């Protein structure tokens, strides 16, 4: 019993230290993100007061708005006020929509989440098998095919690929839906609950709207998924080549274990530990890097929201969206670290 208590105490102490280090890292990173976004708002050559009152405002109106925004205070005090507003969920008001930026982000972020999630699923489901085959047949034709696909995914511009996809699969063949998140005929059939269209349509039994939404989603997700596939397959190949050279693989083959079992059950299982981080970072990159894809496909997500805000000098919306993307990236990275520790028995 005493030994059991000592084991539990040692385990809890170790994981407590790990949690403390992770939380400290997150706090420092978040502080840096807040500082960078605050300084960007002060450095860019856009007057936030004019964005609120307009170019033709009277001097007294301009001065009153300046005082209301707190721009008369010292820079450090403005930063403290900014941190307080952020942690209370106040990201300012969008000039473009005349609504709170927080409410705008709550409305558009689920669309980006839906797009990036399906893109990641496509990339992972195809990228891992492709990377494994490339490692097993290193230097042979499957490896060359994987390299070409990876090079294609990295090299082809997203805007060109998206336009060609729309031209071929929508305009010519009619296999997928066009720009937008759902057809005009189904706009009011699904009541937003979670904000994720496919989930809401399935929950409400609107299956025709579900499949119409899926037809609009599949092409932009495939465009994003190609980048994820290239990244995941390349990293899987690298990890698998390392694992296939380890002593335990040689020992398993000597014992007469089937090649398929050696590769998929043993080598891939050990390679999956670093792959967790790769997949998480790929997902985070798709969440933050879907600006061009959303613009081309008129997808009403966070990337398009930030782009429109930037074109209209709506800095509250731009900085609020940037802050949310940064926070999501930090959160996904933290989650991948925790999951990697849980998956890898050597950390327990």
Automatic annotation (TrEMBL):
Listed InterPro entries: BPD_transp_1_N (IPR045621), MetI-like (IPR000515), MetI-like_sf (IPR035906)
MF terms (GO), sorted A to Z: dipeptide transmembrane transporter activity
CDD domains assigned to the protein according to its UniProt record, in alphabetical order: TM_PBP2
Keyword Transmembrane: yes
CC per GO annotation: plasma membrane
Annotated SUPFAM superfamilies: MetI-like
Keyword Glycoprotein: no
Residues covered by the ABC transmembrane type-1 domain: 109-336
Domain of life: Bacteria
Membrane topology: Multi-pass membrane protein
PROSITE patterns associated with the record: ABC_TM1
Membrane-spanning ranges: 23-44, 115-137, 149-171, 213-232, 267-286, 317-339
Keywords assigned: Cell membrane, Membrane, Transmembrane, Transmembrane helix, Transport
Family of the protein in this entry: Belongs to the binding-protein-dependent transport system permease family.
The protein, known as: ABC transporter permease
């Amino acid at each position: 019993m005493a030994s059991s208590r000592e084991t539990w105490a040692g385990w809890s102490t170790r994981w407590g230290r790990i949690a403390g280090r992770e939380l400290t890292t997150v706090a420092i990173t978040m502080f840096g993100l807040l500082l960078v976004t605050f300084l960007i708002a002060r450095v860019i050559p856009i007057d936030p007061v004019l964005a609120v009152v307009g170019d033709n405002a009277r001097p007294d109106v301009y001065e009153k708005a300046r005082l209301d925004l707190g721009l008369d205070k010292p820079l450090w005090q403005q930063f403290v006020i900014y941190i307080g507003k952020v942690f209370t969920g106040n990201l300012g008001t969008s000039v473009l929509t005349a609504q709170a930026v927080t409410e705008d982000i709550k409305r558009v972020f689920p669309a980006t989440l839906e797009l990036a999630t399906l893109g990641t699923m496509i990339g992972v489901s195809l990228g891992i098998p492709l990377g494994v085959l490339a490692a097993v047949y290193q230097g042979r034709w499957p490896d060359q095919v994987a390299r070409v696909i990876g090079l294609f995914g990295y090299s082809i511009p997203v805007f060109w690929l998206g336009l060609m996809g729309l031209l071929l699969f929508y305009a010519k063949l009619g296999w997928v839906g066009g720009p937008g998140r759902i057809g005009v005929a189904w706009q009011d059939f699904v009541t937003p609950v979670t904000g994720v269209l496919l989930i809401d349509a399935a929950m409400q039994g609107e299956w025709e709207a579900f499949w119409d939404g899926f037809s609009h989603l599949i092409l932009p997700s495939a465009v994003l998924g190609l980048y994820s596939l290239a990244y995941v397959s390349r990293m899987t190949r690298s990890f698998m080549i390392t694992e296939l050279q380890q002593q335990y693989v040689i020992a398993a083959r000597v014992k007469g274990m089937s090649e398929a079992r050696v590769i998929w059950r043993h080598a891939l299982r050990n390679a999956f530990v670093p792959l967790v981080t790769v997949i998480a970072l790929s997902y985070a990159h798709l969440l933050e890097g879907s600006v061009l894809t959303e613009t081309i496909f008129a997808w009403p997500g966070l990337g398009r929201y930030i782009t429109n805000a930037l074109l209209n000098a709506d800095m509250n919306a731009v900085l609020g969206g940037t802050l949310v993307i940064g926070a999501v990236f930090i959160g996904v990275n933290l989650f991948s670290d925790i999951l990697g520790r849980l998956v890898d028995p050597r950390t327990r």
